[in-house]
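Input record (Table S2, row 369):
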Amino acid sequence: MALHFSSACFSALTLSKVPTVRAVASDQSSTAVKTAGEEKLKLGGSELKVTRLGIGAWSWGDTSYWNNFDWDDRKLKAAKSAFDASIDSGITFFDTAEVYGSKMSLGAISSETLLGRFIEERKVKNPEVEVAVATKYAALPWRLGRESVVSALKDSLYRLGLSSVDLYQLHWPGIWGNEGYIDGLADAVEQGLVKAVGVSNYSEKRLRSAYDQLKKRGIPLASNQVNYSLIYRIPEENGVKSACEELGITLIAYSPLAQGALTGKYTPNNTPSGPRGRIYTPEFLTKLQPLINRIREIGQGYGKTPTQVVLNWLIAQDNVVPIPGARNAEQATEFAGAVGWSLTNEEVEELRSIASEIKPVIGFPVEKL
Ligand SMILES: NC(=O)c1ccc[n+]([C@@H]2O[C@H](COP(=O)([O-])OP(=O)(O)OC[C@H]3O[C@@H](n4cnc5c(N)ncnc54)[C@H](OP(=O)(O)O)[C@@H]3O)[C@@H](O)[C@H]2O)c1
Ligand SMILES: *[C@@H]1O[C@H](CO)[C@@H](O)[C@H](O)[C@H]1NC(C)=O
Ligand SMILES: CC(=O)N[C@H]1CO[C@H](CO)[C@@H](O)[C@@H]1O
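Output record (2-acetamido-2-deoxy-beta-D-glucopyranose complex):
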């Protein structure tokens, strides 16, 4: 508890600028402000409760998209401090996958192995710490049958150094074999290897059929993890978000910061390096500026950064849990400040309407996952 208290002060000091009249007038003055750790959401119809936002661990150990194709000790320390800073600020939900990081490429290390190590090291200091781990099954074309799901999960558990995980997700729909995968998820629940199950990047049609199939086994489909941010609102248009609402499935929003483009730090003169530079070009970032400016302005009224505003915008959609990626402690601490306050409905709608003027970039290489 002392831990939460001191970290809340720390984030208040470092992240909140001078509050304005607006912040005082908001409901924060009447009700006690909840810290990121106190506010939790039940994932779909499952019993699993997670913090209002989670941390994405895709970049940890990765050398194929992030980290300038190179993993080293300095990046390892930064990732570990991102993990510790999340826990310190009350965020205890982490999303990884068996394909994150790499076992193949030289020098890199799997994200699951890193997350497992960070948890283990933290438990030495902090034995009572409770972490919710989500990982994913890679539906590779040669993997067939329900057994393949349970056996891949066992390999993930081995890398994580855990006897069970909180959420196991099918990373993407398979070309075939999907019914077997769903049965495998249910088997994993029955064997006590996982508390809740979900899918990722599932269309409305696939989502409904996965939901029905699990229901027959008496197991709720807890979540669908899809690309969702202020500038990538496809789930609002393709029926995925409304099906989630109807069926009580939590939408986990990946790339909620549009891979950093929505944080306001990238400008036409300062584009991201690496593969992201090809997506977020000076032309695209020029078109993004009016939205970023308005996000910044609204944030100033609350003493919040653009990153905190865009994450709050997603949290405002009720049954949505964003999982921004954190590469260092500073980024993770900033995320915690996205929780415990709310944009007004007018602000939520205004931002959606400004964003709808911008044509979304349809990404390349990660689309392959
Ligand atoms: N299911 C799927 O198929 C799928 C696909 C993609 C992602 N995901 C999950 O979603 C998670 C998040 O997605 P993502 O990593 O693609 O994108 P994201 O969360 O939108 O962006 C993360 C990147 O933004 C930058 N950033 C983060 N915090 C910042 C801050 N406070 N200020 C400025 N810049 C900041 C960092 O990169 P720099 O510091 O280098 O700018 C960071 O790596 C992943 O880790 C993964 O768990 C899942
Ligand atoms: C997600 O959307 C972003 C745009 O915000 C895009 O750049 C990225 O490639 C997309 N990723 C996937 C896996 O679809
Ligand atoms: C439902 C959903 O978001 N589906 C997307 C999954 O990813 C492919 C690309 O790999 C997109 O085309 C789908 O729209």
